[in-house]
Amino acid sequence: MRHRHYGDGGRGKGEEATPLPTRIARVVRRIIGAPDYWAYLEHCRLAGHPPRLTEREYVKEFLDTKGRVRCC
């Protein structure tokens, strides 16, 4: 029987786990409806294109569009 190692976040070899304070901050942002620029950057990285918005622009667009920032 294989045991799951706690703290690896279920990631494969070579992938770093997101630090606990960062994960907690993301959860809190989602709960209160605050913009998460780091999630936007991660999306851009995974989609294979550079971010088109600075953090300031992202937050402004997020607030102006009530959380529906369009990227792709």
Describe the structure.
The protein starts with 19 loop residues before the first helix and ends in an 8-residue tail after the last helix. The chain has helices at 20-32, 37-47, 55-64. It is mostly helical and 72 residues long. 3% of the residues are buried. It contains three helices and no strands.
Structural class: mainly alpha
Helix content: 40-55%
Counting DSSP H or I runs of 4 or more residues, the number of helices is 3
Q: What string gives the helices and strands in order?
A: HHH
- Biggest pleated-sheet summary: none
SSE arrangement:
Elements: H1 20-32, H2 37-47, H3 55-64
Task: Provide a brief overview of the structure.
The protein has helices at residues 20-32, 37-47, 55-64. The chain is mostly helical and 72 residues long. It is flat, with a radius of gyration of 15 Å.
Summary keywords:
0% strand, 72 residues, flat
